[in-house]
Write a structure and sequence with these properties.
The chain is an alpha/beta fold. About 35% of the residues lie in helices and about 25% in strands. It has one domain: FAD/NAD(P)-binding domain (3-Layer(bba) Sandwich), CATH 3.50.50. A hairpin with a 4-residue loop joins strand 8 and strand 9. It is globular, with a radius of gyration of 21 Å. The C terminus is likely disordered. GO terms for molecular function: FAD binding; monooxygenase activity.
C-alpha cells in the first residue's frame, strides 16, 4: 500500500487525506496545533466544490446542512441593488446552489471521513526531503511515497522547495469575520460595496431560518483598505465606525456582535504563480499552492478541488514522480486564473474616489439590466468545473447554453 504524509490539517490537508484514502493510500495527516482549531468563522462551498466532494461521497452530507436560499447579489451602502441572482438560477445553470457554513462544521465532516487514526495533531515539521519523500519532525522521520504540502499561506515547505519565489504579497485590504446570533433580524444573503469597503451577510447552513431560534447564526465579513499590520483596540467599534450608517441589518448585527469573537487579519495573495505545483515527491495544495483574496469565495473550494484531482492523478501508484507533472498540468493554470480574477475584483472593491465608485456602480447596474444572468455567467469558468471522474478532464465546465 503506498504511503502519503499530508502536512497541515486544514481544509485542503484533510480533504487530501480523505481523497487519497479513497484511492487506497495509507495516509497520515500532520497538524502542528495540538488539536484541530479552525481558523476563520465561515466559508462558502460553491457548486464546483460540491461536485468535488461528491467524488468523495461527502457532497450530500454538506448539502444536508442547508443551502443558500432566496436572492444574493451586490448592493450599495444604502441598500440599493446593483446586481443579483437567485438559488433557482444557480441550480439551473450548475446543478447546484451554494452552502455557506461554519469552517468548524466542514472540518468536522472531513475529520470524521478521514478517521482519527490517520490524524496526528501536535506535530511540527522541521524539513522535507522532496527527492526521498522524507518528512522530518520533532518526533522522528516519516517516509512517504507522496508528501502533500497543505501547510497554509505562509507554507514553510513552499519556501524551502521554491526559495526564489517571492511568496504572498499584501492585497491592500484587511478583513474582519464573525459569527453573530440572528435574534429576530430578517436576513438576506448580500454583499454591499462602498468606497473601499465591503460587507457581506449570510445565514449559516444548518440553521432553521425561524426568527427567534437560538441556533440561528449569521456569518458576516468585511474588508477595508488599510496599511498592513494595523491594530485596533476594539474591532467592533472599528466596524461600527466604518459601517454603522449602512443599510440594515448591518448596523444591528454589529451591535449584537461579541467583540472578543471578531477575527481580523490582513489579506495576502500571490502576485506570481509557482513554477509548478509539485517538486519531487511533494505536491502543493490549497493556500500553500495558490493563496488568493476572498473576493470569489474560492479559497477553500480550490483546496478541495486540488485534493480530488491529486488523488485522481496519483491513483494507487507509488511512482509519484512520474504522475505529479499531470497534477501541475491540471491545476496550475486554472488556479492562477482564479487568483488573478479574485484580485481583479479586489481592486474594484478598493476604489475610493467618488467618481470612480459611481462609474463602477453604474457599470455593474447597467450591465445587469442588459444581461440579467451576468452575475452567474461571469462565474461559468469557476463554478462549472467538474472533477475528473465526472468528465475525464479536471478543467472542463459543464454549462447549459444561453439559448
Amino acid at each position: 500500500m503506498p504511503k502519503a504524509v499530508v502536512i497541515g490539517g486544514g481544509v485542503g490537508g484533510l480533504t487530501a487525506g480523505v481523497a487519497l484514502r479513497r484511492k487506497g493510500w495509507d495516509v497520515t495527516v500532520l497538524e502542528r496545533a495540538p488539536h484541530l482549531a479552525p481558523v476563520g468563522s465561515g466559508l462558502a462551498i460553491a457548486p464546483n466544490a460540491l461536485k468535488a466532494l461528491d467524488a468523495l461521497d461527502l457532497g450530500d452530507r454538506i448539502r444536508e446542512l442547508g443551502r443558500f436560499e432566496g436572492q444574493a447579489g451586490i448592493r450599495r451602502p444604502d441598500g440599493r441593488r446593483l446586481v443579483h441572482t437567485t438559488e433557482d438560477d444557480a441550480l439551473a445553470r450548475y446543478g447546484d446552489s451554494m452552502v455557506v457554513m461554519s469552517r468548524a462544521a466542514l472540518m468536522d465532516v472531513l475529520a470524521d471521513a478521514l478517521g482519527g487514526a490517520h490524524l496526528r495533531p501536535g506535530i511540527t515539521v522541521s524539513d522535507v526531503d522532496a527527492a526521498g519523500g522524507v518528512v522530518r519532525t520533532g518526533e522522528g522521520d516519516l517516509e512517504a511515497d507522496l508528501v502533500v504540502a497543505a501547510d497554509g499561506i505562509h507554507s514553510a515547505t513552499r519556501r524551502a522547495l521554491f526559495p526564489r519565489h517571492p511568496g504572498p504579497v499584501y492585497s491592500g485590504v484587511t478583513a474582519w469575520r464573525a459569527l453573530i446570533p440572528r435574534s429576530d433580524l430578517p436576513i438576506q444573503s448580500t454583499e454591499s460595496w462602498g468606497k473601499g469597503l465591503v460587507f457581506g451577510v449570510h445565514l449559516l447552513a444548518g440553521d432553521t431560518g425561524k426568527a427567534g431560534d437560538a441556533e440561528d447564526t449569521v456569518y458576516v465579513y468585511a474588508t477595508d483598505v488599510s496599511p498592513a499590520g494595523a491594530v485596533h483596540a476594539d474591532e467592533r467599534e472599528e466596524l461600527l465606525r466604518r459601517f454603522g450608517d449602512w443599510h440594515e441589518p448591518i448596523p444591528s448585527l454589529l451591535r449584537a456582535a461579541d467583540p472578543a469573537k471578531i477575527i481580523r487579519n490582513d489579506i495576502f495573495s500571490f502576485g506570481t504563480p509557482l513554477p509548478a505545483l509539485h517538486c519531487g515527491r511533494v505536491a502543493f495544495a490549497g493556500d500553500a499552492a495558490h493563496p488568493m483574496t476572498p473576493n470569489l469565495g474560492q479559497g477553500a473550494c480550490q483546496a478541495i478541488e486540488d485534493a480530488v484531482v491529486l488523488a485522481c492523478v496519483a491513483g494507487g501508484s507509488s511512482a509519484v514522480e512520474d504522475v505529479l507533472p499531470a497534477y501541475t498540468a491540471a491545476r496550475l493554470d486554472r488556479t492562477w486564473r482564479i487568483v488573478r480574477q479574485s484580485m481583479t475584483i479586489n481592486r474594484l472593491t478598493r476604489l475610493r474616489h467618488p467618481l470612480a465608485v459611481r462609474l463602477r456602480d453604474l457599470g455593474m447596474s447597467t450591465a445587469a439590466r442588459l444581461s440579467p444572468d451576468l452575475m452567474l455567467r461571469s462565474m461559468d469558468d469557476v463554478l462549472g468545473w467538474r472533477p475528473p471522474a465526472a468528465t475525464g478532464r479536471s478543467d472542463a465546465p459543464s454549462i447549459p447554453s444561453d439559448g
